Amino acid sequence: MTDDVLCCHELYRFYRCGDEETPALRGVSLRIARGEVVAVVGPSGSGKSTLLACLAGLDEPDGGAVTLGGERVSHRPEAERARIRSRRLGVLLQSGNLVAHLSVRANIQLVQVRTRSGERPGPDELLEQVGLRERASALPRELSGGELARAGLAVALSNDPDVLLADEPTGELDGRTEQLVLDLIRARTQDSRGVLLVTHSAAVTGIADRVIALSDGRIAA
Ligand code: ADP
Ligand code: MG
Is 117 in the pocket of ligand 1 (CB under 6 A)? Predict the structure, then answer.
């Protein structure tokens, strides 16, 4: 068995609009080892969100392959990608992580009914970890930006994933809350899990074992 929790090889993704073709990813290869936090940085438009979506199986690359714990995710039917995602992956996007008409607790429960049980933490424990225990019954629209980001993290962790993929997880947070979230993310790697974070924050790159810089859809040397 491989020691990588996530691996991608020569990923390509083109966006086509009429005759225009934007290459968003141009041959990106990377691996995340067990216990590793990798940060991805790069200017706006360099392909960070596209990379994250392809790694998460939310988008399909035009070329290349993604494997999660040795299992190929790319170029499979959506139902299979969804099954692999629900067992192995936590995904935290910049917005849209919660179902609007469900409370924070119900959002966590919704993920948990679809995934294996095992040793995963319950909703109250997850909310305690992100400092939101008293907001369990709140609807997403009743939360501040920072609370929403932490609730999204609790939802992303509720299937106890092997890999957490997060796009700007601390973008909305003040310094103290950012540290709380980073401690929580860092603690996940003690159990041989992996984390990939897209970020602009120096505090976030500070907890990373490795920083990968994207430029124009490629990994910069
Ligand atoms: P980043 O997250 O680093 O800002 P993105 O991955 O969002 O970069 O975008 C990479 C490139 O792909 C940019 O040139 C962007 O304009 C283009 N792009 C992203 N999403 C789409 C889309 N849905 N349709 C067309 N072009 C897109
Ligand atoms: Mg982006």
Answer: no
CA-based radius of gyration for the chain: 17
Q: Which atom of ligand 1 is nearest to the CA of 50?
A: 6
Buried b / exposed e over 66-92, threshold 16 CB at 10 Å, is bbbbeeebbebeeeebeebbebbbbbb
CA of 1 to the centre of ligand 2 (A): 33
Q: Judging by beta carbons within 10 Å of its beta carbon (0-12, 13-18, 19+), is residue 134 exposed, middle or buried? A: exposed
What is the set of domains in the chain, with CATH numbers?
Answer: 4-219 (3.40.50.300)
Ligand nearest to the CA of 47: 1
Residue pLDDT, tens place only, 45-103: 999 999 999 999 999 999 999 999 889 999 999 999 988 888 899 999 988 899 999 99
Q: From the CB of 95, is ligand 1 less than 6 Å away? A: no
Per-residue pLDDT tens over the stretch 13-23: 999 988 899 99
From 25, 28, 21, select the one nearest 7 (Cα to Cα): 28
Instruction: Kindly indicate the confidence band of residue 199, based on its pLDDT and cuts at 50, 70 and 90.
Output: very high
Q: Token match 């969804």: residue? A: 82
The pLDDT assigned to 114 comes to 75
Neighbours of 43 (CB within 10 A): 12
